[in-house]
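Morning!

This is the sequence you dropped in the shared folder:
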Amino acid sequence: MIEKDRAAMELYFDEKLIFSHMSGKKQTHEEFIGKIMDGTLNYFKVDTKDYSISVDSDTAHMKVTHTLMAKVYGISGSWTMSGEYTYKKRNGIWVRVK
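The structure's back. Tokens below.
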């Protein structure tokens, strides 16, 4: 996201993934990546504060708190948020699925 690497984002984010912003706005995989690529969403730095990961076979669950430094929809700032994410291992790669 920081590097605006479309190929990497398409590889590591499942195509059915729906992204939820802290504002409540939801975006499809393609909408989210498109907004990063066109400069609407600009991520500069991510600092991980705390995380835990549990793995069961080819599924991993991660709880994380991180601070994002970004400029999104014209507003620059630093936001600390917590989330829970699920990953599936596909062809040796952990892909975020929800």
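Headline: Strands lie at 18-20, 26-28, 41-56, 59-72, 75-90, 93-96.

More detail when I'm at my desk.
O.
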